[in-house]
Amino acid sequence: MAYVVERKPLTLAERLYLPQIFAGLRITLKHLFAPNVTLQYPEERPVIPPGYRGVPTLVRDPQGREKCVSCQLCEFVCPPKAIRITPGAVPADQPDRLHIEKAPQAFEIDMLRCIYCGLCQEVCPEEAIFLQNQYSLSGYTRAEMVNDKARLYELGGTLPDQHYKWDKKKIAAEHGNTH
Amino acid sequence: MSALYQCWLNLPLVLQMVIKGLAVIGFMFPFGGACSLIERKVSAWMQGRHGPNRAIPFWIAWVPIFGPLLQRLGVFHLMADGGKMFFKEDPIPGHVNKFYFILAPIVAMIPALTTVSVVPFGAYVDAAGQLVPLILADVDVGLLAVFAVSSLGVYALILAGWASNSKYPFLGGVRASAQLISYELSMTLSILPVFLWVNAPGGSGTLSLFAVVQAQSGPWHGWSGLWFIFTMPVAALIFLVSLFAETNRLPFDMAEGEADLVGGFHTEYGSLKWGLFFVAEYSHMLIGSGVFVLLFLGGWNPLPWLPLATFAGWLGLAGNPLVVGALSIVIFLSKVLFFVFLFMWVRWTVPRFRYDQVMKLGWQKLLPLAIGNLIVYALVIAWVQVKN
Fold first, then answer.
1. In this complex, do A24 and B350 lie within 8 Å of one another by their Cβ atoms?
2. Closest chain B residue by Cα to residue A20
């Protein structure tokens, strides 16, 4: 409902304006001696809060094994089509992963396209791709801004794993999948 | 030392004056630049930022503690800015009137630096025990000369606004002239009581600023020891407000008005010509603060009822004119610096007035107040002086 705001006539002090200015001056003087709030950026870095969505990275499990199984869900869900995956077979030198169907032969994320939406992380069934703390990236060429697989693993590192999904599958298969 | 002094005295008078003048200009010019740096730092601190704190020559970075301290205070940004200003490209837009476009910043600088010549900035006690002002030209017209010359500064703004041949600078120039005319009146009227008091009947009339400071340096308990800001607070207030308007400082920043006029009168200017406008503005600020300190805050007297000569006597400097002179300059400059700070302090506190508010304040509030103030003080001074 519409209502009329009562405008009180200004008091003499308000009309003089000077008391108001002095009040303002007091506030700015207080700020003059208050500690600064800006960070000296390259030397001081901000504290990244948990849940921050930085550069998307690929992570390994605590045994140092690749988690991505090249299902390409992230590639399909990626709104700006920044992800490009070339699926391949699991390398023969990883005997404990040979029961996994696929592994990425190449995995590229074009950081000039990425919009940091986090859908890849959300959609990943293997918990292999995470948007982590990295917030500052730069390069001199367009090619430099495309993160390849090696770079993605370098950025991602290792994250704790709660499931060990493929280990459990292997054990289950050895026991005849009885559950 | 005395040989050097003799050598100085043997120089032709013209040469002495030129050297003195160059020394003062050599002080004013970089000081104007330094003010811009102080402005940046003060505004930064008031807004919770660090301000400029990066530039440092590598050999000073080797000095422990002292180097980084200077770096954090941003001292070297002054030189970096100055160097940039001198060496960057100086474009002249195709649509401007070239002659007046180039003339404007020069016209801005000349009054700003000319007014210094009649403003005393210190004093010393000579062998005869007389107080002698440190001043380039101790003329009787003193303050009148300051007002006359410093108001010429507005021609620079009008000229810049017109020669730029572009609407925003033009509007800025028009506003600047209107504002200057409005506030010049109340400014001049507000200081008349001071000179009514200084020029007691019977004495020889003077508008010299030195005489005003002399009238404020009396011993304990006398009226003459009290600074004029205590006896004439309303006049001081009107003068200060008008000073803000005259120097085009916020909240009377009509001529520039970034929000509505892009950059105001200097929209089309760049590099050194723009820098000259800037230095001129700060020089005006310095001179204005100096005049305020001389008129209302006792000039080089350290405290009310404590004249410089007495103070120097306490410190045992009576027979040492050089040290007393330096002391007086330090006292005077620290007062001026406080006012420069006040200018910045107010700038970063009070938002810009609307144009009609500026005009209304000038014509409907300050001018009647100044006239009333003049009449009241004229009566009071007449009464006091008749009684004596």
1. yes
2. B350
Give CA angle at B156 (B152, B162), nearest 5°.
130
Q: Which two structure tokens, joined as six digits, stand for B161?
A: 């606004």
The verdict on ipTM greater than 0.90 is no
Residues 234 to 253 of B: which have CB under 8 A from any A CB?
237
Is A16 an 8 Å CB contact of chain B?
no
CB B268 within 8 A of CB B96: yes
Cβ distance of A28 and B348 shorter than 8 Å: yes
Can you tell me which residue has the tokens 């308990």?
B221
Q: Using a CB-CB distance cutoff of 8 angstroms, which residues of chain B are in contact with residue A18?
A: 237
> In this complex, which of B46, B50, B350 lies closest to A31 when CB atoms are compared?
B46
Q: Under an 8 A CB cutoff, do B345 and A38 touch?
A: no
Residue-level pLDDT, tens digit, chain B, 388 residues: 566 667 777 777 888 888 888 887 888 777 877 888 888 888 898 998 888 888 888 887 788 888 888 888 888 888 888 888 888 888 888 888 888 888 888 888 888 888 888 888 877 777 766 777 777 777 777 788 888 888 888 888 888 888 888 888 888 888 888 888 888 888 888 888 888 888 776 667 778 888 788 778 777 777 777 888 888 888 899 999 988 888 888 788 777 767 777 777 788 888 888 888 888 888 888 888 888 988 888 888 888 877 777 777 787 776 677 777 888 888 888 898 898 899 889 988 888 888 888 888 889 988 999 999 999 988 988 888 777 7
Cα(B85)–Cα(B80) distance, integer angstroms: 9
Please check whether residue A25 is in contact with residue B345, taking contact to mean a CB–CB distance below 8 angstroms: yes
Partners of residue B44 in chain A, C-beta under 8 Å? 36
Which DSSP helix (H) or strand (E) runs through A83?
strand A83-88
| Residue A157 one-letter amino acid | G
Beta-bridged to residue A146, according to DSSP, are A110
Could you say which residues from 13 to 52 on chain B have a Cβ atom under 8 Å away from some Cβ of chain A? 42, 44-50
**For residue A28, which residues of chain B lie inside 8 Å, CB to CB?**
46, 345, 348-349
Token pair in block for residue A142: 């367009």
Output the six-digit token pair for B271: 């590099």
The per-residue b/e assignment along A65-97, b for 16 or more CB within 10 angstroms, e otherwise, is: bbbbbbbbbbbeebeeebbbbebeebeeeeeeb
- Say if CB B49 and CB B299 are below 8 A apart: no
Inter-residue contact A104 to A83 (CB < 8 Å): no
pTM of structure: 0.81
